[in-house]
Amino acid sequence: MARTMSTAPVSAPVRRHFLSQQAIEGYVCITPWLIGFLCFVAGPMVAALVISFLDWSMLAPPEWAGLANYRRLLADPLFYTVLYNTAFISFLSVPLQLIIALVIALGLNEKLSGVNLYRTIFYLPSQMPVVASALLWLWVFNPEFGLANALLNALGMPPLNWLFDPVLSKPSIVLITLWGGIGTPLIIFLAGLQGVPASLHEAAAIDGAGAFARFRHVTLPMLSPIIFFNLIIGIIASFQAYFTLVFITTQGGPANTSMIYILYIYYKAFRDFDMSYAAALAWVLFLIVLVLTAINFLLARFWVHYEGAEHS
Amino acid sequence: MVVDTTARRFSRRRLLRGSGLALVGLAGASFLAACTPPSQMESKPAAPAKPAEPAKPAEAAKPAAPAAQPAAQPAATTAAAAPAKPAASQVTLKVAYWSSSPEDHNVFQSVFNAFQEKNSGIKVEFDDIPSDEFQQKMLTMIVGGTPPDTMELHPSWVLSFIGANQLTDLSDKAKDDKAAYIPAQLEFWSNQGKLYGMPYYSGPSFMFYNKTLFQKHGVKTPEELEKEGAWTWTALQDAARKVSAGSGSEKTFGWDAANSDASNLQFYTSVPIWCNEGEVVNKEETAWLLDDPKVIEVFQWHADLFKERVIPLPADTQGTSWFFRTGRIGMAWAGRFRSLELVNAEFEVGMVGTPKGKVGPINRDGPNASGLPVGSKNQDAAYKLATFMGSPDAAPVYLASGRALPVRTDLLDSDAFKKSLKPYERQEVLMNAAKTVRAWRVPGRGAEAIRTFKAEWEKVLIGQQDVPTTLKNAKAAMDPLLKIR
After folding, report:
1. pLDDT tens digits, chain B, 485 residues: what are they?
2. Interface membership of A142 toward B (CB under 8 Å)
3. Across the interface, do B34 and A47 touch by the CB < 8 Å criterion?
4. Quick check: B58 contacting A, CB < 8 Å?
5. Any chain A CB within 8 A of the CB of B15?
6. Between the CA of residue B231 and those of A86, A212, B105, B240, B330, what are the distances in Å?
7. ipTM of this model?
8. How far apart are CA A122 and CA A105, in angstroms?
9. What is the interface size between A and B, counted as CB pairs within 8 Å?
10. Do A25 and B13 touch (CB under 8 A)?
11. A54-55 and B190-191 as β-strands: parallel, antiparallel, unpaired?
12. Which among A21, A144, A255 has the least Cβ separation from residue B458?
């Protein structure tokens, strides 16, 4: 059998050599990106890793500290607080963003009059600068004359302190992230929905599937790679983003209840000039995000369906 | 023909390949350069924190002559380019300060213009850096080996620069000039008997009060209490309670304790603590004294006033840069920089000094000075500018701005100062404020200590913790920060 196979008239596999002319031309083409990556991503990452093993406050000469910064991190109660706060905001806001974006995308995928206007309206908040958005929400959540309390008042409910309440500070931030965070996944969902073949829906309808069944068994599986993409991007972003929003609205208060990981890194690096500790925090964050992404990829095999793949 | 074409095409690709490799090489070189640790990395890790090359006193005493700068300091670019020219025409000072507004920027620029007029050989290049980024930018410039010739200093972080030997000791240069300054103003920039900054701005605190609100409630004004000799911290609390009234958006509050931030030890709370015969840290600066009964007492009455809604909560003042201006505050702790904001106030403004406690009045200040980074290439010219900024020559400009108080004793009663007073400003209040200043800087990791304290204090405001527990916890978290310099 092997001999038969070997004599079969199949074309020889193309050998792609690292130093082939084609490969070199490819390298030349990606050189601008490569320079940027080396100088502004890989370089600082390696530098941060080295700094995390030093004791360096910028002004004084650095000294080798070994794992001291990582040991300090494990003994730092605020580290666990910021980790919890970040996870709370992230694990609440990302799924909510995806669910709301998907629901709105389903609506905006219908052939309605003025649908383009609605699409623009829903997408617009995501294009608003974070600073402007944060200031706007500060006014909305103002305990004295904000819209949120005016609404509660109209419903006969007592006013809340929103961002200034230790219990509500994180949910309030989640609310703000929903407003600005659904635009981008919404557009991606919309594109994905328009890529679901109508023939599949028709076939399912002929088989007697109702609207929900079609959504459950046709739309969702076809959208699952897009949901997965949005989930991965959302989780990575949520662990690293929201800095500006939190910095402007609560600055991590009250009593550190909204102090998120990235803000803590900023305070350590640029307020306390505790560069080595900040670098250690940054690397731990990188590892956390890496592990979360890996877990997501592992779980993806159970629910993400790729069109044309033999199995999900 | 075929060969020729191929060769041509091939050579073009070769060119592309060559360019690509050159670019990669360049990228690699810049990457390596970027990753090369700063110059200080070259020093041996085991060695103790070695100061950067300090300016030699003998050289410091010389007049501005950059062309004759010693080899230890690289000569100024201009001097190197044209060594034959007279030194006086060659000095360009790069100076770094932060302005708080366009008007403030103009004040700086006007002072520098006046300096240039008096010192024709010196040109000043003003780098106006946002205050939030200032410390970070200075660190980057110093570590990168391009420090400015003079830089603005602030008491909340000056110790870290002094501790890292990055500021020039000005003691010798200033030995004949020091006597002119208000002593406390020099203390802010001194450490272990050495002077590291020449003061140019002073902003001690006092109180503005809303006369209209006091009259509306028929309450004796702080000024009337002051005249009776009864202006104390206890009287302040009583008055604050009496003018607190109403609800909702009409609610008035009695006392604005530093923008509702009673945790701001540097800017505010140290003052009532000192007036209560308490201390914030011990003399050796090795332990916070927050669990001292005299300190607890001060924070307790603040907590009570917050609870009674006599002091507005941070949530109440949200969205306003200064709540007092809204007319809903009876009295506000302030510096003179706030005075300009009251020019068009819709209520009658009064001014009164810091109340007395068991002792006092004792005051705080948030002054600024000019420091000379050790890497400054034009130390003599830089020192000249540093002293000019607080001098009588510059006073007509910087005092006329109506934001600052004089840093020199001879200017406290000067015409320039008197002319700058607004109708609601009282010279005696400002003079007393300046004279009762106690120089204090948050020791250790100051920013982190204040942030830690603020987070603990917020637990009081939200009713999570009582005052003694909060202060005990804050002390436990803050004491270790004193060990890191």
Report:
1. 333 333 444 444 454 444 444 444 444 444 434 333 333 333 333 333 333 333 333 333 333 333 333 333 333 333 333 344 444 458 999 999 999 888 889 999 999 999 999 999 999 999 999 998 899 899 889 988 999 999 999 998 898 899 888 999 999 999 999 999 999 999 999 999 999 999 999 999 999 999 999 999 999 999 999 999 999 999 999 999 999 998 877 889 999 987 778 888 888 999 999 999 999 999 999 999 999 999 999 999 999 999 999 998 877 887 778 899 999 999 999 989 899 899 999 999 999 999 999 998 999 998 999 999 998 889 999 999 999 999 999 988 888 888 889 999 999 888 889 999 999 999 999 999 999 999 998 888 888 899 999 999 999 988 889 999 999 999 999 999 888 75
2. yes
3. yes
4. no
5. no
6. 48, 75, 37, 13, 15
7. 0.76
8. 10
9. 127
10. yes
11. unpaired
12. A255
Q: Does domain A70-303 have CATH number 1.20.120.420?
A: no
pLDDT tens figures, B143-176: 889 999 999 999 988 988 998 889 999 999 999 9
Mean pLDDT score of chain B, rounded to an integer? 82
Nearest to A59 among B28, B164, B454 (CB): B164
Provide mean pLDDT across the span A269-283. 92
* Partner-chain contact B35 A46, CB within 8 Å: yes
d(CA A178, CA A101): 9
Residues 443-482 of B with CB under 8 A from A: 445, 447-448, 451, 454-456, 458-459, 461-462, 464
Q: How far apart are CA B325 and CA B421, in angstroms?
A: 19
What six digits make up the tokens of B79? 């001097």
Instruction: Return the DSSP state at B329.
Output: E
For B:245-274, CB contacts with A below 8 A are 248-249
Interface test with B, best of A54, A144, A247, A274 (most B CBs within 10 A): A144
CA nearest to A87, candidates A282, A247, A261, A268: A261
User: Read out DSSP for B121-163?
Assistant: TEEEEEEE--HHHHHHHHHHHHHTT---SEEEE-TTTHHHHHH
| Burial of B290: CB neighbours in 10 Å, binned 0-12, 13-18, 19+ | buried
Nearest to A274 by CA among A72, A93, A85: A72
Note whether B86 contacts A: Cβ–Cβ < 8 A.
no
The minimal CB distance from B19 to the residues A28, A38, A61 is found for A28
Residues of B in contact with A256 (CB under 8 A): 455
Helix A169-181 × helix A77-108 angle, to 10°: 40
Answer yes or no: is pLDDT of A39 > 60: yes
Residues A164, B20: C-beta atoms closer than 8 Å: no
B200 touches B407 (CB < 8 A): yes
Instruction: Give chain A's radius of gyration (CA, Å).
Output: 25
Type and span of the H or E element at B195: strand B194-195
- Of B13, B26, B451, nearest to A21 by CB-CB distance is B13
What is the C-alpha to C-alpha distance for residues B69 and B77, in angstroms, rounded to an integer? 12
CA B87 to chain CA centroid, nearest Å: 34
Contacts of A31 in chain B (CB under 8 A): 20, 23-24, 27
Contact B45 A62 (CB under 8 A): yes
Structure token pair of residue A266: 């900023």
**Residue B196's pLDDT is what?**
97
Find the length of chain A: 312
Dist CA B189 CA B372 (whole Å): 12
Q: Which residues contact B334 (CB under 8 A, 6 or more apart)?
A: B205, B206, B207, B208, B324
Phi and psi for B354 in degrees, rounded to 5? -65, 135
Can you point out the beta strands (E) in B72-112? 91-97
Contact A35 B455 (CB under 8 A): no
> Which of the 8 DSSP states describes residue B266?
I
What is the distance in angstroms between the Cα of A273 and the nearest Cα belonging to chain B? 8
